[in-house]
Amino acid sequence: MISKIKSIINRYPNLFSLLLFVLLSFLLVLPYLHGPAYQHMPGWDGRFHISRVAESYLNLKAGHITQINPSIMTKTFGSFGYPQNIFYPIFVMLPEAFLQLIIGNAYGAYLVFVGLIFFLTFASMYVCTLNLSSNHYTALLSSILYGLGHFTLTINLFYRSFGGSFAFIFIPIAFYGIYQIAIADYRKWWILSLGVTGLIFSDLPDASVSLLLLLLSFLVTFTESESIQTKAKRFLRLVYAGILTIGLTAFFLFPLIQNLLFVKNIAVTKLMLSKTAYPLINLFITDKLASYSLGISGLILVVCIAIYWQKFKVPYKYFSVMLIISILMASTVFPWTPFDKYLSFIQFVGRFLYFANFLAALLGASAITELVHGMQNKKIVISLFCVIGILAGTSLNFNIKHSQVNNSVYETNWRDFQKSTLNNNVYDYLPSKSVGLKDKLLKHDINVMNPKKQIKQLKWSTGYNVIHYQIKAQYAYEKLILPNIYYPGFATYVNGTKVDGGYTKQNLITTPIKKGINQIDVRYIKTPVQLFSIWLSVLSWIGLLIFNLLSLKRKK
């Protein structure tokens, strides 16, 4: 029986690996399936990200699949028309909305979604490493090191930062793309575009840091002896990849840029990067179960890489240097103070650990494959890392459960977890000058905004990309202030007629009204920039599909 199993594994290594990934993903979320739900305190990443998908779910539940990507939030995030999805794309989170619709519970859907993210992280790393090394063992080991690493577990299970979680999936794809352009088959340049597109849709600050390190990785091309013509072709394909990425992401990036230029200064927290750096030792050895750290396992991988470094091929030697650079840039060793003013959009330097985490797994697996002799010993190594990773994830769960205050979570039942997803107090994309108005905005009361005017609000309600008010006015007014913030695309209608009322210095929407009953509708209408960028992205995606179909046809 055992010999038959071994025979099947040897014959179908990819299938075995995928089944192992399914098992590991299930074991990581298994401890959370038993008992109550644990929700993050308001203001934490986990609370914010799970709230992002709530509006899409509510629209799906109402049977409106075309409303799965609202531009403004009218049922969640305060229900005052906050443009969450314009500043932070929801696309990679949409499967969670469908899961919630199928499962019927937000916490159950969340756990299945986390399991799916772990599986895709394992699979992405496996495919990347297999294509780079042509070695099934190295690919399997790198996947386990990557998916069960301290940093990966921290982001996925403790911070519950879905933006970062998806970055784990797309970094291997983007790296494989830049590798192909730099020193392999540059005709696969479009893979880089797909990877970077995924990163941008996951989390823009994470993508910015990863993109910087990917561009530095491209310099590995100069370690290969090639003609100037070949180098020029490689550089040209890098440009192609950049142009295609802009096209693929235009329907998010262009409206984002439009709104950033209009708002000028959003309320998102800006930290001094030098204050967010970690002592170098803390990036490996920490007294916390969850932290921005590579952990002891990361330290072991770095040691293995150092031992085997001399025997690495030149490209891997270069990537080893990139690994050291990534680690140092997350530490206090790097002089961040001069950059505090100019790179504040990064928010914190721990983002460099995403790339370091990937390179440590890739290079560490390659080194261990050569350092450990005998298939039996190699299997023991994989088994050990699997057991250690699962135990680490389980320990993290127990720590969260028994030390809720220290972990900024609270215990709730699965039903109330769903209710809590509708409440969120993070409004990073309000104009800075409008932050002080938040409490008034949340009241949805025109009387509060206009205390000296003789008006009475009769009704308030919301719909898809629209907010409705009904008021009764004793007099006509030229400038009635509404509890809504103006962004490009907002339009006001009074009794069915579009009006141009403008907005205050704090970006509050204003409108003229007549004496008597007034029906006021604040709508979001796609801007010309949005419409253009949507068509540009549609054509880019179609072009990419046609390009690949033609490439496949030529190969045949």
TrEMBL record:
Keywords: Membrane, Transmembrane, Transmembrane helix. Pfam families: YfhO. The chain crosses the membrane at residues 12-33, 86-103, 110-133, 139-159, 166-184, 204-223, 235-257, 289-309, 316-336, 348-368, 380-400, 532-552. It comes from the Bacteria. InterPro entries: Uncharacterised_YfhO (IPR018580). The keyword DNA repair does not apply. This is Bacterial membrane protein YfhO. It comes from Weissella paramesenteroides ATCC 33313. The lineage of its organism: Bacteria, Bacillati, Bacillota, Bacilli, Lactobacillales.
